[in-house]
TrEMBL record:
InterPro entries: ATP-grasp (IPR011761), ATP_grasp_subdomain_1 (IPR013815), PreATP-grasp_dom_sf (IPR016185), PRibGlycinamid_synth_ATP-grasp (IPR020561), PRibGlycinamide_synth (IPR000115), PRibGlycinamide_synth_C-dom (IPR020560), PRibGlycinamide_synth_C_sf (IPR037123), PRibGlycinamide_synth_CS (IPR020559)
Top-rank taxon, per record: Bacteria
Pathway in which the depicted protein is active: Purine metabolism; IMP biosynthesis via de novo pathway; N(1)-(5-phospho-D-ribosyl)glycinamide from 5-phospho-alpha-D-ribose 1-diphosphate: step 2/2
Name of the gene encoding the protein in the UniProt record: purD
Protein name: Phosphoribosylamine--glycine ligase
Catalytic activity: 5-phospho-beta-D-ribosylamine + glycine + ATP = N(1)-(5-phospho-beta-D-ribosyl)glycinamide + ADP + phosphate + H(+)
Amino acid sequence: MKVLVIGSGGREHAIAKKVSMSPKVSKLYCAPGNAGISECAECVDIPVHDFEGLANFAAKEGIDLTIVGPDDPLVAGVVDVFENRGLRVFGPRKNAAIIEGSKAFSKDLMKKYHIPSAAYETFEDSKKAIEYLKTSKYPIVLKADGLALGKGVLICNNYDEAVQGVKQIMEDKLFGSSGDRMVIEEFMTGREVSVLAFCDGTNILPMTSAQDHKRAKDNDQGLNTGGMGTFSPSPFYTKEIDEYCRKYIYQPTMDAMKAEGRDFIGILFVGLMLTKDGPKVLEYNARFGDPETQVVLPRMKNDIIEVFEACIDGKLDQIKLEFEDNAAVCVILASDGYPEHYEKGFPIRGLQAFQGKDDYFVFHAGTKQVGNDIVTNGGRVLGVTATGRDLKEARKKAYEATGWIEFKNKYMRNDIGKAIDEA
């Protein structure tokens, strides 16, 4: 098979690496890819939003399967473009990707179909939102309705903070047009857990659990980012919780989307809050999580191409997902100043230290090749992942491996997975 992966981040590097291990694959392309992906795939200089260009390439090269990584092209309808051209593609269509593209849609869906989640209200007028805040309980959560690179959520501790937050989102357009509409939501407390699941429109097959660290600084301080590190599995996601979620969250979500005429085929990412009243949905995403993918896929035993094809063909009930009885931890090496202001273009040293080591991985997120050097080219630069017998061993190895890499303004959190030690 000839396979094309669309995207250029750490998530796409993890997907491409897993795809490259399939005996079914003879040639792998990635558009546009990055310096790390180029080691396992041929990178093609086509932007992720050039749908016609991507489809033309797939048709011309006889691509047998295209896998879409990022949220933006999915929400904008890249899958529909490919399908209309008779091209085989993995990911939800535009009318299903709305589950991530609109927070208001997903909240309304959960309410209509009795899927456990936080109480909420939706607003298109900042004055009405501010009026609502006068009678709200605090802390409270403000969410831009549309996509915002994983950063469109503000947690406000009091009325004044919340008013400022509404103005930032709806009037100052902190997240652009994503803030034309917003959701104000009850603040939930508990452990956050991420579960990625394969979907074929009818069946849903959850993968192993993971836990992300969104805040920029240690001890969950600082601004929300796209994710500073993650670990898998979550010790808090027990067999009983898994059974509850399958019965009351995962399958009902699939059934709800089907009932709405929006069959969901692709990856459903369910962000959960394990509250004292049971698991509730924090958010849905319509694709692999980043950086959750960097700890989940290295633990997966299955040939991922077989699973992708089963999703597209509606045969997911014939697949048994298997994961290694181990653990993985990913620590993000970022550019100091991320997620706000940071410099790019610094040479990265030490990448060769990962070669030939089966239980260590370095996934490129924001890198590019300049002459003989690989240089920094983003806020999140690399995801350093290690596997181990258990979470403590994996964490120790991941942090050891971060020391192999050097670049100017290198920054990381030092407490990824620290909660494991307290579990």
